[in-house]
Amino acid sequence: MAQDSPLIDILLRVIRTLRRSYDLRARDLGLTLSRARALTALARRDGVTQTELAAELAIEAPTLKRQIDALVADGFVARQPLDGDGRKNALVLTARGRDSAIVEFTGRLRREVLAGIPPEDLAKAAEVLERIAQNLDRMDRA
């Protein structure tokens, strides 16, 4: 019976523990898990707008705005006017945002969190979690 499955409770515990662990380790770098997610996504698509980045991260634009404001204040991100549209800004990483210590930290954390888990198990887990996310999205649209 799916409703008796401990999966949701385990998932909530993993999320809480991951956030706490990440925040503890990243404090010296001036990052939180949410800000690091924004930086990581921005590293893949430097120069996107805030609206595009919010869509990619599947979060509300006002939530992302607060994160970007903090990243700008801490020198990780800069806003640059978009050519041809004075109302929009492109988000770009600064030298600090591209800092190899941040990239290395994120990579090391991901390796450590997933250590010892066979690739086929990770693939299945990703498939299951994606289905859960789709179910939640469907519920929210109903």
Shape: globular
Largest beta sheet: strand ordering: 1-2
- Helical percent range? 55-70%
* Class of secondary structure makeup: mainly alpha
CATH topology: Arc Repressor Mutant, subunit A
* Overall strand count: 2
**Strand-and-helix sequence, N→C?**
HHHHEEHH
Which whole number gives the mean pLDDT? 87
Q: If you compute it from the alpha carbons, what radius of gyration comes out, rounded to the nearest whole angstrom? A: 17 Å
CATH superfamily: Winged helix-like DNA-binding domain superfamily/Winged helix DNA-binding domain
Low-confidence stretches: none
- Biggest β-sheet description: 2 strands, antiparallel
The tally of structural domains comes to: 1
Q: How many distinct helices? A: 6
- In terms of quaternary structure, the protein is single chain
CATH level-1 class:
Mainly Alpha
